Structure formats: structure tokens, C-alpha cells
Amino acid sequence: MHSRFVKIGFAILVCAMAIPLFLSAEEPGKIKGIIVDKDTSKPISGASVQIEGTTLGALTGPDGDFLIMLVPPGTYKLKITAIGYTTVIYENLIVTSSLTSECPRIEMIPASTDLDKVIRGEAKRDKIEKYVTASSQSISADQIKCMPVQTVGDIAAIKKGNARCAETSGYFPPAHGGTAIVNGEAFDAMFYENYGVNPFVDTEDDHLSTFAIDVDDASYVLTRSYIERGTIPPKDAVRTEEFINHFDYGYDPPANSPFEVYIEGAPSKFGQNCTLIRFGIKGKKIRTENRKAANLVFVVDVSGSMAREDRLGLVRQALRMLTNELTIRDKVGIVVYGSRGQVILEPTGIDKKEVILAAIEQLYPSGSTNAEEGLRLGYQMADRMFDPAKINRIILCSDGVANNGVTKAEELLKWIKSYADKGITLSSIGFGMGNYNDILLEKLGNKGNGFYAYVDDIAEARRIFVENLTGTLQVIARDVKIQVDFDSSVVRSYRLLGYENRDVADDKFRDDKEDGGEIGSGHSVTALYEIKFHDNVNSDKLGTIFIRFKDPDNGEVTEVSRHVTRGMLHDGFAKSSPSFKLAAAAAEFGEILRKSYWARGSKIQDVLDLANEIYRERNDESMLEFMDLVSKAKQYEEQLADK
């Protein structure tokens, strides 16, 4: 939490000092070349070529060739690294506007010659004079960088010399061509799906409400990124359940069972003439030392659109953190994809952590986006090292934009499901603002039997990969579904807040072939219902909640239930717990931002007032961030009215 506010202040300082490489109006150039083994003259595939002092770079293809696009005119130094080879640095490489600068053939020496040496040369000479000097094998990416260029307006300002801040990653035109972002949006080519908004349902028509659980919170973090960048997100970007499930409500984990169920209700503060009921489900917590060994495959998008510090730069930092948290029992393999998929690192034990970290450092962007080939290679690797006694997980890091090979989520999901059924799960982690596909990443995470998260800064990466690593990796229940059976003689109608895209047909609840959600160690799920009662009916029983799930190891199905009674309801909203009030505030914030029919007339100020009240009761840092976010959104209410 505190690091986020420190980051903002520090970024401003860095921006003030930064001088973008592309303030010039000159058109960028290109750098190309080929890299071979000095002893055998065979091409080296997967070598990393980085322009030092920038985020520009590329990986060599099967023929050892590379191409770096969008290089501003100037004189540069290249750093070439490859696993098993000594680092090579070529200096004084001149790039001219609109032209391609070709490097001479670059020869790399096997690292066994001298593991702590680097070869240097001046690339502009016909005959390269080489000499040896001591070097460090690591590239530091820990410093906070300025915010990347995000919009065409930013780019225009940069070309006029009025840049607020920019990375050295080149000019990124709108994905659809032209010079303006379409539809007046703040960011270019952000893809979301409209799942609608749940209505009130009369119990005489349908007294059963059935859905698959969802522990994702990517929508909330994406919204935070929009608001922190000074704009309101499109309404389709908001999924209310992911706002609700972003927060920790302090549910105690069960002692001797997979789940504990918490039920609380009170008259709704925001809904009209209805009662709000919260169902909280907390999974058992596995101690860190008892986590299963993990076979992980990092599948990383290294296409040209990832060439920004909040994308591939942040991916490298996140994967470094994750790798540093793994144990000697774990293994990691790495696959990348740009125009083609490519294996960068075969499965490697954590006893060789330095090899894994070196491979992560070699991730640099180039090419178009063949997500299909990258995922196929990743699944094939995971299948080769599959062990039913271990966690078998693919971690996809991408902006979700696929423009080569199969690009439609439904086509990818057809063959991903067979791997998920076997026990190879996929978690999709999104990076970047502008040219971002939430639709694909959300569907891959759901159907891959993993989860979907969005990482907007290093603090969020730490939350996922460090603070909650066991929950991120180890699943305690699969295909979890919830069914609430409302007593139609007492409850007149009900409305589930969110979960529109997780709806399950009522008659599929006990169909164990029907896909549900997954819950990791210590994870919790919260669902909110607004309900309306029949007049003059005082029965204590309101309904029953059923939870059905599979054991992740043996597939055994278990179903548990809890009665819902009036005794679980407070007679006033003010008497409810702070965590109940927080869930209500988070839900209403989401409902307002997605322009729900049921939030018409609601005001962000009311959410902010409630958040302040909760902070006085809870007094924790998560409320400070929430209050700051709601306060900023209030400033942009005119934007919200226009969207």
C-alpha cells in the first residue's frame, strides 16, 4: 500500500529528469543481425539482444537472426546474452533515421571458457577488435521508471517537446491506424465484453440461483489503473464481483474442513427497499512449508506491444520475485512468443536459480503476437514434466492481444480444456494499458482452471507472487459451484450482484462435468444478494446455500449446505460489521462505474462517506487506498456521466 504512494511521488521526480530518446521528429530506424556460436558457427536461438540504457531489445530466432524495431536515431551499445555463453557487448552502433543498421556477424564464446568475462567490440568496424573485461551478468530493473507513453495525446506532446514523461521504447501508433484513438477513449484498443447486469428474479419463477465461484480481482486492479491515470474506465471493464473479492474480510479459515461459510445481512444502504445478504466462503489454509512441489512453465508474450516498462519490464520483475520465493523441490521452464513460439529454458530446478534468473533477464520484445504457438509449446512442456503429485501450472504473462495464428478465445479453449482436465492449470496475468485484451485473458484464466489477475505495479506483483504464493499456486478445491435456494413463501425476489459471466444452469449444479471455479489455499469468495420479502411473512428460514466441489487430488465430490435464517440479519445497516459495510461499499462502487440500472441515482459521494466510516472502524491501510480511489473517481464524475 505505502509503496504505491511512494512510487507516484518518485515517478514524478524521475520524469522531471528524464530525457526521452524520441523527442526528435526524425523517423526511427532498425537494427538487425545474426548471432552464432564461435566454435561451431551454428546459429544461437533465444539469445537476448538489448540496447543498453533502454527497454528496446529482441530475441534471436531459430536461425540466430534478430530485428529491433522503432530505434530512435543515435549511437548505441548492444548487450548480447545467452544461457551457456559469455556476454558480448558491441559499442558505437550507429542508427540512422528510417534506415536499417546491420550488425556484423556476432560470435559468442561458450561460457565454460570464462564465466565472469564479457567480450566487447565496436560494431561499426569492418574487423571487430575484441578485448576482455570483468562484468556483471545481471541487468538491474528494480529502479522505478517513468510512466510509459499511453495515448496519442502524450506522443504529440513529446514531439512538441512538452512531454510529461516517456520511456525509451519508441512510438506506439494506435492499433487501428491513424493518429487518433477511436471513440474518444483514454487508451487505445482496450477490449472488454459486456456481460449485462443481473436483474431481480421473482422466486415464483425461479427460486434457485446458481453460479461458479470467482476469486479473480483483475477488474478492480484495472479500474485502479484507469483512475490513477486520471480517467474513468469503460463500464464494460467493471465486474462487480471482482470489486467485492479484491478485499480481505477477515474470515477465519476452517480448522477441520475444506470450507467455512459466513452469512450476514442487513437492510441495504444503497438498494431500494431491500435487504443485503453476504455469503462468505473461506478455504482452508496450507502452511508454506507444506505446499506441494511445483512444476511451473512461464509463457511470456515478448511481442512488440510488450516493449514498455509497465509490460515486459514489469513481467521480468514479477517473475524474478516469484522465482526467488520457490523452493528446492520446484522446477521452472520458460517459453516465449512473438511472431513465433520458442522454448527459452527447458525445465530447470531451483538449485540452478541463477540460470532461471538469467533466462528471465533475456526477455526482450520483438515481432507480432502468436499466442497460440506460445501456449501450445508451454502446454507441451508442462505435459512432458507432468507429475500428478505436484502442482502443474502454466503462468501466462501478456497484454492479451493475439494477432497471429489462432486469435479467438473459444478456439484456444477447445484444446486447453483437455489439459485442465488432466491437472495442468493456467493462470493468466495481464500487463499494460492500451492495446490490451481483457476478454481473452479473463476467459483463459477461467477455463484454464487457474485464475486471472492484472498487475499494474511492483506492489501488486508482490501481493500475488510473494505475499500469497501458496494460495496462488496450490488449489484446495476444483469446480466449485454455489446454489442458493430461496424459500419462495418468504422471499419475493432476489438479485445477485455480479457473477454474470459465471452463471450456471440450475439443473447443472449437481452435474459434475459442469465447469466451476477453483479456490486456492486460504482464498475466500464473497457473494452479495439483494432480496425483497413478501409482506407480513415472519418465517425464520429464508433459504439454503449449497456448495459443491471436487477434491483436487482424487476428484471426490463433496456437497455442504447451510440454512439462511432471519437471525443472521441485523435490524439496521449501522449495526452490521465493518467488513459487511466494506463489501457493500465495494459493490456499490462497481455498480456505479458500470452504470448498473440498479445504481441509478446513486452517488459516489455516498460510497466515499461510507468508506470514511469504515476506515474509522477498521483503521487499516487497504481502506486508505480504497478511499483515495473513490475520492479520485468523484473528481471524474463528469467523465462518468459521459461514458
Plain-language structure description:
The protein has 643 residues and is of the alpha/beta class. It folds into 3 domains: 26-134, Sandwich (Immunoglobulin-like), CATH 2.60.40.1120; 201-286 and 476-642, Immunoglobulin-like (Sandwich); 288-473, Rossmann fold. The strands form 6 sheets. The chain has a 6-stranded mixed β-sheet, with no helix packed on it. A 6-stranded mixed β-sheet has the order 18-17-16-19-20-22, sandwiched between helices. A hairpin with a 5-residue loop joins strand 5 (74-81) and strand 6 (87-95). The model is unreliable at 5-24 and 113-171 (pLDDT under 50).
Explain briefly what this protein structure is.
The protein is of the alpha/beta class. 27% of the residues lie in helices and 28% in strands. The protein is built from 15 helices and 28 strands.
